């Protein structure tokens, strides 16, 4: 109803002003960026941040994800005390880390720990894209590698939820080294025949997609998730070809054999329980 009202008035191309943005009170209502439906924030949360109208999956924070997957009161965090240094004295890096710590109440862009899902024990890692875009620096890599090592020792399946812009530029080559470190830890898991499930959420790109995110024994993605290494424009310029519209979406990757499943968030916990039950 509101949408029609606004459309009739719009005679000129307008750039949304700060005031226009404020028309939807933050915290009470949220607009779906995919279909434009205005959603009540509380209902959206109850529906695991999936738009009731079109099924768009809103980003989820690490605590929200853990709440939606792990059995209530059954999560014990690992390595929460690990903090990033500023090894390259990168301008403003320390300040930005501090800002993100305050904003997210997290120490870094990944939370790892162990818990039970449907009664089955598992080591769990969840990346949080609010913290430096979920980028992988030394601490993120170290926490993921340690979680994989603990999973191997305990022989618990490791379930990792990825959401990342890639390697963290402020840590330069140290950040890139995490790709090798995490991959080596997962290779050891593989040799010991311990299950690793990677859940790729929107977005999973860059060095993260090129390392642990793609190394699952089972690779699952959420619908519509952007998954890829380099950006579309870079690839188009390199190969001098127009790429398909759905390129780098979860559905495209499933069609081309790079994923095992695309699962709605509403069915994700049940799917993981089935996988854990099957491998128990
Ligand atoms: Zn929607």
DSSP strand tally: 10
| Number of domain modules | 2
CATH class of the largest domain: Alpha Beta
Which compounds are bound in this model? zinc ion
What is the H-and-E element order?
HHEEHHEHEEHEHEHEEHHEH
Radius of gyration: 20 Å
Distance between the termini: 51 Å
Give the overall average pLDDT: 93
Envelope shape? globular
Given as residue ranges, the uncertain stretches (5+ residues, pLDDT < 50) are: none
What CATH calls the topology of the largest domain is 2-enoyl-CoA Hydratase, Chain A, domain 1
Largest sheet: 8 strands, mixed
Strand content: 15-25%
Give the oligomeric state.
single chain
CATH architecture of the largest domain: Alpha-Beta Complex
Put simply, the count of helices is 11
Class per helix and strand makeup? alpha/beta
Helix content: 25-40%
Q: What is the CATH H-level superfamily of the largest domain?
A: 2-enoyl-CoA Hydratase, Chain A, domain 1
Domain CoA carboxyltransferase N-terminal: 28-280
InterPro entries: AcCoA_carboxyl_beta, Acetyl_CoA_COase_Trfase_b_su, ClpP/crotonase-like_dom_sf, COA_CT_N, Znf-ACC
Keywords: ATP-binding, Cytoplasm, Fatty acid biosynthesis, Fatty acid metabolism, Lipid biosynthesis, Lipid metabolism, Metal-binding, Nucleotide-binding, Transferase, Zinc, Zinc-finger
Zinc finger (C4-type): 32-54
């Amino acid at each position: 109803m509101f949408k029609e009202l606004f459309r009739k008035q719009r005679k000129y191309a307008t750039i949304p002003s700060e005031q226009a943005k404020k028309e939807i009170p933050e915290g009470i209502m949220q607009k779906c960026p995919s279909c434009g439906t205005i959603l009540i924030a509380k209902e959206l949360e109850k529906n695991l941040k999936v738009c009731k109208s079109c099924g768009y999956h809103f980003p989820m924070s690490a605590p929200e994800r853990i709440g939606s997957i792990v059995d209530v009161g059954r999560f014990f965090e690992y390595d929460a005390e690990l903090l990033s240094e500023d090894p390259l004295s990168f301008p403003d890096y320390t300040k930005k880390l501090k800002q993100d710590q305050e904003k997210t109440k997290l120490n870094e862009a990944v939370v790892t720990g162990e818990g039970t899902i449907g009664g089955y024990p598992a080591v769990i890692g969840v990346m949080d894209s609010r913290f430096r875009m979920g980028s992988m620096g030394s601490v993120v890599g170290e926490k993921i590698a340690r979680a994989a090592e603990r999973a191997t020792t305990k022989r618990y399946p490791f379930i990792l939820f990825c959401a990342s812009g890639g390697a963290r530029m402020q840590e330069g080559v140290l950040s890139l080294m995490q790709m090798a470190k995490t991959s080596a830890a997962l290779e050891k898991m593989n040799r010991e025949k311990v299950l690793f499930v990677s859940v790729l959420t929107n977005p999973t790109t860059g060095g993260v997609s090129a390392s642990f995110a793609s190394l699952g024994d089972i690779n699952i993605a959420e619908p519509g998730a952007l998954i890829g290494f380099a950006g579309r424009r870079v690839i188009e310029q390199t190969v001098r070809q127009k790429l398909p519209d759905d390129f780098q979406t979860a559905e495209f990757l499933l069609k081309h054999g790079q994923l095992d499943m695309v699962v709605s968030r509403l069915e994700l916990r049940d799917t993981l329980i089935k996988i854990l039950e099957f491998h128990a």
